[in-house]
Amino acid sequence: MHVDELREALTEMAAEQPAPVAGAEPVVARGQRRLRLRRVSVAVVVLAVVSAGAGFVVNRHVAKRGVEVSPTPKPALAAAARPADGNGALFTSSSEGWICGDPLLHTADGGHTWQSGSFSTVASGTRTCAAVPTDAWVLVQAADGGLTLRPAQGGPNLAVTQTLPPLPGGAVAEQLTFIDKNNGWLLAVGDHGAAKRGLLYRTTTGSGRMQFALVSTEAPTRGLQFVNATHGWGITQSGVLRTTDGGTTWSSVAVPDPRRTVADVAVSFDHLAVRGATIVVQGRNPVGGFDMSVFLVSTDGGATWAERNGPATRLGTTEATLLAVLDAKHWRLGSGSDMWATDDGGHSWAVSALPPRALSMSFPTADDGWAATDDGRVEHTTDGGQSWQPVDTPPQPAWSSTIASVPTGCPSRAITAPPPGEHEEDEARRAAEDYVRRTRGWTGETAEAVYPVTEPGGRFGAVFSTNVPMFCGARVADMSYGVELFNPSITQDSSRNTALVVAHFADGWKVWGFYK
Amino acid sequence: MGNRAVSFTAFYDGNYPSVCRALALAFRDSQRAEEAAQEAFIRAYVYWRRVGRMDRPAGWVYVVAVHQAARARRRDDATVVPVAGRRGETTAMDIAEGVVEREALRLAIARLPERQRLAIVLRYLADLPLVDVAAAMGCAVGTVKSTVHAALVRLEADLGEEIETIEEVHPDAR
Q: Among A380, A420, A430, A436, which residue's Cβ finds the most Cβ atoms within 10 Å?
């Protein structure tokens, strides 16, 4: 009997299982609610997770063999976390840094003063940024896949927009990285059958009109870092790759212990950071249903590798992490609202705080760190993360700005005026505010249902059948899932599904409906 | 609908039924399978910015769903629902030999210990690479290989014939 017959039998048996009935919409709705609740309760969750974590032991093996790399790699960029989706902190030194948000922010005096690029000149879409001293680049991929590149030279003033050729087959721009003004790489990720593949584009044309040429269709899918024009590193979900020819060809890194495979070290790899000859790769391994951080590290440019334990805290199977590496000894790992620090190359870890909702962090020195959050805040630490202070920057996006009209019966609450602007989120917020003001809130007394609308202020149709509390206001929490209508007097309780009601956009901000 | 919901919905529609059915087959409990799959897809939605960019998002969902199903088993010792479909009703007297062999194979699969059945379901039905199977089962890749091997040996013993396998070398399984 061939194993294909086993496959066929399994397929038949699976087909005989009862057909699942749930469509995507309830799952999406519950996911949206979970997103909101997660933000509210992230601190509690992380505390619980941390308290549960202990007793994790991973064998350490020092490599006797490894891979070759340039003997004198040039210093790399500041090892910031990926600034995907905007608001990334990229610091190239203690004095100079960038915040990849709207607008693009730049400081040359350690954050005392900031200059901002004009938002209106940056196309809307998913942003990816890269920076070297004095220069930065903002790559924006619009919803239709169109790519624009905005170099900023010597400050935040963006140069003329360049339109880049579209990526093939719906590929997504994942990362932009430069080693100097002339040499940069754009990593895109596209589908390749059931798997993902990295498409790597390279530019060497420098200032003026930059041209990117495709150099590899088998590149890593994330964590791209180059130490010079030829030598670079990257990761896939389950492997570490290197190149010695500028990204044209890639080969796998051998793990320290020849008796083990990469999959024995980690089931997936999340981050890669390079500082000089130090290369640190963070991965995760499941232990008892949770993930633990593990590291592969080389301090000699990739010639030899060693495994290191992460901090003794469970990440959960889905916990996002941030990684910043300063040198061979000083690494910073962000996880939820915690920041774990090691000053001895991963042998021991100490925990401190990370600003809530941190999207990226950058540490130009062991004590001097910056974090940017997904609600537009920038925070600074000068004591290695023991304490963080908010930084007074020019206005960032109004993701967390709260607006509210207060209908009869609702408690008073502070109203934070949104910043001026003509952006879509402002229009959406105004539409929601008008709705709340016009209806003076919505109460379940007149109907045991909340209804979707097909146009702003239009007629409603039933969605679900439980009582709905009165809405007191509206706020834009995240444009990816729309305007939230809320009643602050009601405690959110996921088990009782009482309070969270979200108005979501079905078509930009123009058509919106409700999820409970 | 936002970009997140649009791209997630396509992923959900393409993978949810197969995840449910694979788990139902592995755990012999369709209700628990569907609950676990739903929870896994909800988490996938929450972390879609990251999961959607993974090499194999479906593999991630399988890992979370299996963890969830195992956790639910420990929590409430759920009622076991027999594998659906006909079992042992067919006789060798009135159907072709090939069909009898297939039925014997299905019975042998159903009789496998749960962990062995989970291993071959994830490996040969879900077609996950060994690293993902290991992540789902919470063990090392080597353990997955030995579990799959043990399952095949047991099936061979039940069936009285050898199962030829050509071990696929998935790039991520090296």
A: A436
Query: Which residues in chain A touch residue B37, judged by CB atoms under 8 angstroms apart?
Result: 20
Three-state secondary structure string covering A114-129: CEECCHHHCCCCEEEE
Rounded Cα distance, A163 and A140, in Å = 10
The answer to whether the predicted template modeling score (pTM) of the entire model surpasses 0.80 is no
Please indicate if any CB of chain B lies within 8 Å of the CB of A259.
no
Rounded Cα distance, A406 and A474, in Å? 10
Burial label for A402, CB within 10 Å (0-12, 13-18, 19+), is buried
Edge to edge, the sheet with strand A338-342 lists A321-325, A331-335, A338-342, A350-353
Q: What is the ipTM score, two decimals?
A: 0.78
Helix (H) or strand (E) holding A195: strand A195-203
Total length of chain A: 516
Residue pLDDT, tens place only, A211-248: 889 999 989 988 899 989 999 999 986 688 999 999 99
Burial status of residue A209 (CB atoms within 10 A of its CB: 0-12, 13-18, 19 or more): exposed
Tell me the β-bridge partners of A177.
A185
CB A225 within 8 A of CB A273: yes
Contacts of A15 in chain B (CB under 8 A): 21
> CA–CA distance from A138 to each of A88, A143, A360 (Å)?
11, 16, 16
